[in-house]
Amino acid sequence: MEKFDVKLVALDLDDTLLDRNALISDENVAALRECARRGIYVVLCSGRLEAGIVPFVRRLEIAGTEAGRYVIAINGCSVFDMHERTQIQCHKVPGDVLLRADEMARSAGLETQVYSTDTIYYGKLTPWIKMDIDLCKVRGVQVPDYRSLLAAGSPKMLIPCNPETPEVAHELMIKMREEFGERAVVFTSKPYFLEVLPPGCGKGESVEWLCNRLGFGIEKAMGFGDALNDESMLRKCGYGVAMKNASDYIKSVAKYVTDFDNNESGVGRFITEHVL
């Protein structure tokens, strides 16, 4: 079988590279280490903060290599160079959009949170905000004057909902899309996680930017994902790969679908067959 000509592999984490226990399997690790050894960039690309992605890079043991130096965080709002220990690209949602989104969320009985590279900030702690802090394994800080923080802008706002009532997030998403139009990107990364991102920003846009910075086009990139926040990456990458466990819609926008799901090392098996 002829192998794909890939120079960069971009990988979503939850329900893609990670299994149900939020772990990277040995088979996935082996395939990605071999990619890095061959000089293929391996870029973890997640809605998490940089600080929440780094432990998974350590698991791959590639951070010290040229091929493992970059991560894309906050669903494409931030590109981080771990060798230089700095953001090399960052986008923010305007403060007035965040303030209005916060008002709309509260009207729906929800609270919001925003991000820095290593901290989640919120005005009022809810069980759903705590759930996300625990999931991301980063610091959470309650801010007394939270609205002033929002006014300064942020790379991302998350509105976590009760997982048992995801329709609340969906209804609010529709209202926010009507309210903000092209001023913000609004979507659900999980049925109960509603996100507000800067316009023209997403995983696919940041993968494309990084590819251009590295001297090749995004047609040489392979992207793996399972959810709506992976859509732009799957559409833009020359080799967009949906997981077997992805929704039918995400499978329809991808060029390829793995034969195995995230609990069966679907990423590593696909790379071994088609790249290595």
Mean pLDDT level? 95
Rg, rounded, reads 18 Å
* Main sheet specs: 8 strands, mixed
CATH fold descriptor of the largest domain: Rossmann fold
Going by CATH, the architecture of the largest domain would be 3-Layer(aba) Sandwich
Question: How many domain regions?
Answer: 2
> What class do helices, strands and sheet pairing give?
alpha/beta
Which range best describes the helical content: under 10%, 10-25%, 25-40%, 40-55%, 55-70% or over 70%? 25-40%
Any descriptors?
276 residues, 2 domains, HAD-SF_hydro_IIB, Hypothetical Protein, Haloacid Dehalogenase-like Hydrolase, Chain: A, domain 2, 11 helices, globular, Rossmann fold, single chain, 14 strands, 8-stranded mixed sheet, Cof-like hydrolase, 6-stranded mixed sheet, alpha/beta, phosphatase activity
How would you describe this protein?
The chain is α/β, with parallel strands linked by helices. The chain folds into two domains: 157 residues, HAD superfamily/HAD-like (Rossmann fold), CATH 3.40.50.1000; 103 residues, 2-Layer Sandwich (Hypothetical Protein, Haloacid Dehalogenase-like Hydrolase, Chain: A, domain 2). The protein is 38% helix and 21% strand. The protein is built from eleven helices and 14 strands. An eight-stranded mixed beta sheet has the order 5-4-3-2-1-12-13-14. Helix 2 packs parallel to helix 11. The longest helix has 15 residues. The radius of gyration is 18 Å and the shape is globular. The mean pLDDT is 95.
